[in-house]
Amino acid sequence: MFESLTNRLNQVFDQLRRRGKLSEADVDAAMREVRLALLEADVHFSVVKTFIARVRERAVGTEVSKALNPGQQIIKIVNEELIATLGEPAPLNLSGPKPRVIMLVGLQGSGKTTAAGKLARLLRSKGERVMLAAGDPYRPAAVTQLQQLGERLDVPVEADSNLKPPELAKRAFDKAEKGGFGVVILDTAGRSQLDAELMNELKSIVAKVTPVETLLVVDSMIGQEALNIAQGFRDNVSITGLILTKMDGDSRGGAAISIRSVTGVPIKFIGTGEKLDALETYDPARLSSRILGMGDMLGLIEKAEAAFDQQTTQKTAERLMKGQFTLEDFLEQMKQMKKMGPLSQVMDMLPGQFGQAARQADPKEIEKNLKQSEAIIYSMTLKERRNPDLLNASRRRRIAAGSGTDVQDVNRLVKQFRETQKLMKTLQKTGGRGLGNLFGG
Amino acid sequence: MAELLARWRDGLSRTSRSAFGRLAGLLGATEIKQDTWDELEALLIQADLGIETTSDVISTLQRLVRDRGLTRSDQLGAPLKADLRSRLMTPPLLEFSAKPFVILVVGVNGSGKTTTIAKLGQRFVAEGKSVLFGAADTFRAAAVDQLQVWGDRLNARAERSRSIEVIAGAPESDPGAVAFNAIQAGVARKVDVILIDTAGRLHTRFNLMEELKKVHRVVGKALDGAPHAVWLVLDATTGQNALQQARAFKDAVKVSGVILSKLDSSARGGMAFAIQRELGLPILFAGLGEKPEDLQPFDADAFVDGILNS
């Protein structure tokens, strides 16, 4: 919906390519665009102001490096400053005597209970003995929600709707201590930072169980209020980290910048889906390019890497080097692509125009195509897969019948394969350098 | 009426405490300067009005200043208020044109759908309507229980004849089937209003949006002309993403109105302007507190007043 910042800056600098240093006027023109991009990303107004001032100071007089155009040079500086503001990802602090209490706080609907479940799963997979404590007796069925999550994870849940949250926290702590638990994850009720009564409740929880971590759970779609909310919570309890939730949506997540600059607490996790394993450590570079509206290429690459089976890929690569890309490799590629997860999610990570183009296509349609192609290849003999030149008309008819498709479908697949084969040959010659152009600014 | 306005004022008083307290200072009896516009821009953007709406409001005011030869910033207050107000529709009077009148409630995760439905239920019952809830959020842990508990709570306060029945499905069961059952039950019991809760979903999730479209279709099959309304619950703290949300839900299931939840938080819900301008969707209700009676018909004047802290 928004033009990417890269495009806009390139427009600004269209007339002034290849000038030596960035002049004040150049930088000012660029800063207007950067400011818009940040405000559109929900970075707080005052934070944008100081941020722009800092970038401006750094940018004026900078020599434009030979590899970049002025727009890219500015983006590089903006990106570096954003990354510095976002800060390094910090691990959970699990020091001190057991049990260590991790308390989750935040507004209503920010995703605390789900985050509690995800954290429990993560810590348990790392070998911790985890207990969940349901400190939200107010929202109907909030306790049941946590209990159901605990059941799914096989993690005990301490709950008692008749107890005040501070008392419940204490009881969970005592039980965990006796039972030899390493971590107590305490879910709390959603509250506004302006609600004095509920803020006092948080303080008395802290007084009773002294959490090692008090994590502020923030919806990544939040607007300008993020700053006041973070400040309000910080003024009442000492926040030690952030969890940014619902990052699988298309919000730009600029709130992270606002909260970081005002509280200075590190971002510890991001929530990327409804399933209990969708909790990731955050990467400042990736978040920065998202805030700038430049897509999540890093995320995409990581997903691809995770999905691709190292050995198979290596085998394919070896055959490739010998110029032997066959339909079997083609099939393997399709399988691995499916493993990257729902195509719609992959598409959301593509930057700017790529992403827009990709979102035009119905992922279901593409997935159907993939399935059909698979069926066609499965209906071939091994010989045919290894040597597609064998595929004459009568073989193609047989394959179509076998896969429940039309001969045209078979023809289309063979054509696609030939094109891929050609691309592979080019890649082989250039050693992959050709690909770089695909993602250039 | 007085009590109603008081509720708005109570709900919004926290809202206006911080940034908009500055408005009075800004629009004092001083000369209009570049600073005035910069400050005004800051205020509007901080209320999440977004750049486009903010620039639009400011240029309208600047034109007015030129045309009328205004010089003092205290002359800006009234036109500013009028301009903001003119950007908001007065919500259409809610008429239950069919019986049962089926309302599908949709939104992203954590926007406050279930709580809103409970409050709506209470409101309609108080107006003498019979109400049935369809708990079609079969995905999130305990979402069904949440609506059930609300139903029980409301029933405990009401007379027997006014109790709200909750039709629910098993966890992980097909939400379309739950919606279908709810409507069948509603028709059989001759209720006036059926409110159908759906699972929260991010608007970017293709499969989940397809699922929602299916629920919408199934509702239409269960009863001709249903759903008679599709309401999007939008968290007032949401920033620029609100517009994308509203657009995606409107495209998928023909949203007919928006409910602004959590307006009693410190957020000001300024994205309502963009949603109205870009999508023509009226804001129907606003959530002004935790209690069932805190859901109130959207009052555009009070909303603008809350924003400007007058």
Task: Describe the protein's architecture and organization.
The complex is a heterodimer of chains A (441) and B (310). Chain A is an alpha/beta fold. Chain A is built from 20 helices and 8 strands. In chain A, strands 3-2-4-1-5-6-7-8 form an 8-stranded mixed beta sheet, with helices on both faces. In chain A, helix 14 packs antiparallel against helix 17. In chain A, 44% of the residues are buried. The model of chain A is unreliable at 431-441 (pLDDT under 50). Chain B has 310 residues and is of the alpha/beta class. Chain B is 50% helix and 14% strand. Chain B has 12 helices and 8 strands. Chain B has an 8-stranded mixed beta sheet, with helices on both faces. In chain B, helix 11 (271-279) links the parallel strand 6 (257-261) and strand 7 (283-287). Chains A and B meet through helix 2, helix 6, helix 9 and helix 15 of A and helix 3, helix 7, helix 9 and helix 10 of B.
Give the neighbour order of strands across the main sheet of chain A.
Answer: 3-2-4-1-5-6-7-8
Number of strands of chain B: 8
Q: Could you describe the largest sheet of chain A, including whether it forms a barrel?
A: 8 strands, mixed
Largest interface: A-B, 56 and 53 residues
Rounded mean pLDDT of chain A is 84
In total, how many beta strands of chain A? 8
Per DSSP, what share of the residues of chain B sits in E-state strands of 2 or more residues? Answer: 5-15%
Low-pLDDT segments, ≥5 res of chain A: 431-441
Count of discrete alpha- or pi-helical segments spanning 4 or more residues of chain B: 12
Poorly predicted residue ranges of chain B: 15-20
> What distance lies between the first and last C-alpha atoms of chain B, to the nearest angstrom?
19 Å
Distance between the termini of chain A: 18 Å
CA gyration radius of chain A, whole angstroms: 27 Å
Note the run of SSEs of chain B as H and E. Answer: HHHHHEHEHEHEHEHEHEEH
